[in-house]
Design a protein that fits this description.
Blueprint (H helix, E strand, L loop, with lengths): L2 H15 L8 H5 L4 H22 L15 E10 L4 E9 L17 H12 L4 H12 L5 H9 L1 H9 L6 E16 L2 E13 L5 E9 L4 H13 L4 E7 L5 H8 L4 E4 L1 H9 L4 H15 L4 H15 L4 H9 L1 H4 L7 H7 L3 H12 L10 H16 L9 H12 L7
Parallel strand pairs: 3-6, 6-7
Antiparallel strand pairs: 1-2, 3-4, 4-5
Length: 412
Amino acid sequence: MTKKHEQRNTAVEQIVSQLDLSGMTQEELFGQNGLIKALTSRLLNRVLEAEMDAHLGYKKHSNVGDNSGNSRNGYSKKTVLTQDQEVELNIPRDRKSEFNPEIVPKYAKRLPLFNEQIISLYSRGMTTRDIQAHLNEIYGVDISPELISTVTDAVHEDVREWRTRPLDSIYPIVYLDALRVNSRQNGKNENKALYLALGINMDGKKEALGFYLSQTEGAKFWMSVLTDLKNRGVQDILIACMDGLTGFPDAVRAIYPQTKVQLCIVHMVRNSTKYVSYKDLKAVCKDLKQIYSAVNEQEALEALDDLGKKWNAKYPMIQRSWETHWNDLNEFFAYPQEIRRVIYTTNAIESLNASLRKVTKNRAAFPDDEAIIKIMYLALKKAAKKWTMPIQNWGQALHQFAILFGADRVAI
């Protein structure tokens, strides 16, 4: 803890110790005329006075200010929204009208913390009406839908910068997936595809590389996504993990010819069991596990053949599907366990998708595409705050990548 933090904590303790809080109700503490509101107002007014002292170079009533060329010129009253309430402030003025406080910027009707409160609620999937009702019910603050839109629209510039930022030159693993979202277009709901690219960087940490919105999911659009990644600096991807969309592997190889493709095992299992009856589901899943948990490719092929002999009479599409995609599934068996754990499934991006779906589940449709982009960016930023630790055993996996792919591609 820094000296400044220690001083602040000591000051807070001194203030609190002088308050008689015995018998105070929640309304007396947090209500519209409660203690917290009064303290907030007094504290902000004190900070404003300190800012004016710094601006003029002398304290109030000090003779140092005599003939200085500028001086205090009374106050103007102002009501501002803090994070959870309205407070009355006395804004100091100077004769030259040069004072522009930082804590409550000139012309601002709400503090930055209030904006963050709105953006935080919006990033959790709450609609404009939901946020309006929440702030009114919890804090007694009545704000207009237009204000909420203005605050959240300020995110657009951040989105533009984030979506065009330079990326690392190499990502050992990139997960590619899409989810569906509804948008209002021409007066009707349209189901659109939100494309996601999630990378594992050289430090073994997850990094959202980008997201893209399109009418449908297709290999052609995926090629444009990969082209964007390349234009932003990604020169090499060792392994790309994806679902079994037709033409998807070819789209990857068209932009990154050296990249190895690994189809998502979980997607394959889901597709294989889509039409399996409930009474057979457990047995089929057990036999499928014999394939993807095999020690090597030969053992996996034998397990696939055994599955076919057992289930082809009822479910012939299962073996056929695995054999059709085998050349993009068998990459998995070329690696030791440390790397297999990472590419075994698209769990990393599935987890991200789950976070994004939380903000869409209560919405029949977004008002437009801009609203989708805005809230998905905020949800991604929120999810990324948890990505602080590298993947387990990443150091060992990285050394194995260097051996398997060559030191010219993986410089440790």
